[in-house]
Amino acid sequence: MNTQQIWRKNKRPIKPEDTVLLCFPFAGGGASAYYSWYDKLPEDIVLCPVQLPGREDRFKEPPYLSMDHLIEDLLPDIRQIPNNLILFGHSMGAKIAYEVEKRLEQEGKTSLHLIVSGNRPPHMPEPKPIHHLDDEAFRHALARFEGTPKEILENQDLFQFFLPMLRADFQMDEMYCEMEKTRLKCPILALGGEEDGEAVPEEIRLWEEYTGDTFSCRFFPGGHFFVWELEKEVLEIIRQNLLIQMEESYI
């Protein structure tokens, strides 16, 4: 089995001199959410959106219910990347990115940067979980995140088709909580939406407690999916941070 084709959706092969940007999806999202980024980053950065089971070209595979099980299966593929790593995750993806970095550092490898977006830090449990609701209540609750297309929410057949994956993602996301604050060795950039009711600025700033290196945060107009509402502005901030970290790695 070629795990690189399954997990990482990089558009071109990774060269030894490249920096690899791994992007982890939000609950219910797939690797395609990041495809528009391919041609908007410096040439020596290889974008690798991560495709989780249960969606898109992996829709026949059962989705994960446990963060621990996901990380255990995902790490062997990431370990194969010898290059400098930068981890990015939005919403649920921020938690995945943090857990990946934590495990990598336990093994002696530190990424250039961890970029967390639209999510409160790991010690803060989900105040309004929805994964346990019945189907109709769950469908109604999904609307508050604005990430599930209306075509799915308004079509019973489509909703039932995507329901197992959506419910699994929200269960994994909402059941994950780490009360012990592990201070990472890598710097952290935290991004947030000024009108995001799921992760308010005061919560986003608490990511500072998770690094022993530099911390910075930026906020953008918009709600939970500000990353795609203001893609150009967000990518510029990411690009600036990537270039800074890449320059420092050569000093």
UniProtKB/TrEMBL annotation:
Keywords carried by this UniProt record: Membrane, Transmembrane, Transmembrane helix
Segments forming domain Thioesterase: 21-240
Any single biological process term in GO: lipid biosynthetic process
Organism name: [Clostridium] polysaccharolyticum
Keyword Transmembrane helix in record: yes
Name of the protein described by the UniProt record: Surfactin synthase thioesterase subunit
Pfam families xref list: Thioesterase (PF00975)
Entry similarity comment: Belongs to the thioesterase family.
Transmembrane segments: 20-38
